[in-house]
Amino acid sequence: MRISAKAEYACLAMLELAANYAEPQPLRVKAIADAHQIPQRFLLQILLQLKAAGLVASIRGAAGG
C-alpha cells in the first residue's frame, strides 16, 4: 500500500504534537518541520487542513504555535 507524502507528513506532525502534549508551550511549525525534514510551507498547509477538520488547535501571536 502506498500513501502520499502529504498523508505521511500529517501523521508525523500529529505524532509530534501528541508526544509534546504535556508541554505547557505550544509547538511551533518550524520545530516540527525541522525535526522531520518537512518543508515548512507544505507542513503549514497540512496543519491548516488538520485544523479545519478539528484535529489540531492553533494559537496566534508571538508565543503561538
Overview of this protein structure:
- By secondary structure, the protein is mainly α.
- It is built from 3 helices and no strands.
- The longest helix has 15 residues, at 5-19.
- The N and C termini lie far apart (33 Å).
- The mean pLDDT is 90.
Low-confidence stretches: none
Provide the gyration radius in Å: 12 Å
The helix content, as a percent range, equals: 55-70%
What portion of residues belong to β-strands?
Answer: under 5%
Helix and strand element order: HHH
Rough shape? globular
Largest sheet: none
SS field, number of helical segments: 3
Question: Structural class of the helices, strands and pairings?
Answer: mainly alpha
For the residues shown, what is the average pLDDT?
90
The total of beta strands comes to 0
Distance between the termini: 33 Å
Write the layout of secondary structure elements.
Elements: H1 5-19, H2 29-36, H3 40-52
Helix pairs in contact: 1-3
Features:
single chain, 65 residues, mainly alpha, 3 helices, 0% strand
Summarize the structure.
With 65 residues, the protein is an all-alpha fold.
